[in-house]
């Protein structure tokens, strides 16, 4: 495995330091993914509540500025994702995927619960983290790749947060005056944000689940051990899905 530390002389504790850096970068990418999800949800909920007189309290709560809470949320989530590691993150991603499938099936075909967007935040961070751990394993200059991914994810999260602030501050004025292209676009097609989020989350968790299965199977010495682990787990979740129906 090559990383930033592969170019430096071997020193006591140096490998541990680079492993910690990689874990923090993975956690940061996952935290930025959660930040993007939260910002887009805020935009959608605010746009939907503008012309609804019964949701004015919700609109005011969404528009309330929290300048320190959002960066603190990203920092705390980065630390948590770095501490749990890829194995625990894999189990969390698998558990949420099965729970989401059972919830969607219990709601009926074509029906989606908006609560899943709120419940999947931590699981989304875990899914992105374990997916990166699997995709970049054995890659040359792993730390450089993670640093690039963290930079791009941070840039995307920053723009999504700016969009949410712009919408909360100026959407009502701009949508009435037909002044701002972004607000006009949201006025015309803002209802499509949930569909966009469903597609993005579906793709993310599909990759995360494949990576999670591979990461978990590595701990077994033989196929028989893997079968003994997965068989009762599959039976339990199948019975749970049937029960929820």
TrEMBL record:
The chain crosses the membrane at residues 68-84, 116-136, 179-207, 227-244. Keywords: Membrane, Signal, Transmembrane, Transmembrane helix. It comes from the Eukaryota. Residues 1-17 form the signal peptide. Pfam families: TMEM82. This is TMM82 protein. It comes from Pardalotus punctatus. The gene is Tmem82.
């Amino acid at each position: 495995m090559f990383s930033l530390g592969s170019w430096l002389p071997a020193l006591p504790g140096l490998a541990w330091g680079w492993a910690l850096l990689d874990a923090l970068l993975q956690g940061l990418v996952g935290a930025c993914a959660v930040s993007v999800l939260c910002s887009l949800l805020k935009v959608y909920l605010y746009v939907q509540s503008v012309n609804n007189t019964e949701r004015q309290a919700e609109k005011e709560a969404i528009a309330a500025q929290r300048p320190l809470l959002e960066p603190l949320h990203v920092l705390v989530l980065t630390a948590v994702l770095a501490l749990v590691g890829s194995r625990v993150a894999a189990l969390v991603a698998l558990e949420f995927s099965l729970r989401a499938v059972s919830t969607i099936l219990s709601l009926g075909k074509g029906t989606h619960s908006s609560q899943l967007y709120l419940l999947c935040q931590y699981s989304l961070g875990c899914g992105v983290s374990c997916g990166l751990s699997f995709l970049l394993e054995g890659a040359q200059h792993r730390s450089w790749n993670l640093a690039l991914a963290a930079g791009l994810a941070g840039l995307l999260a920053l723009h999504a947060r700016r969009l949410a602030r712009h919408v909360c501050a100026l959407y009502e004025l701009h949508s009435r005056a037909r002044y701002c292209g972004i607000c006009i676009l949201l006025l015309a097609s803002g209802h499509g944000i949930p569909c966009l989020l469903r597609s993005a989350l579906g793709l993310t968790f599909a990759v995360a689940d494949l990576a999670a299965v591979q990461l978990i199977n590595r701990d077994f010495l033989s196929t028989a051990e893997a079968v003994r682990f997965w068989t009762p787990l599959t039976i339990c979740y199948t019975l749970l899905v049937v029960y929820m129906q």
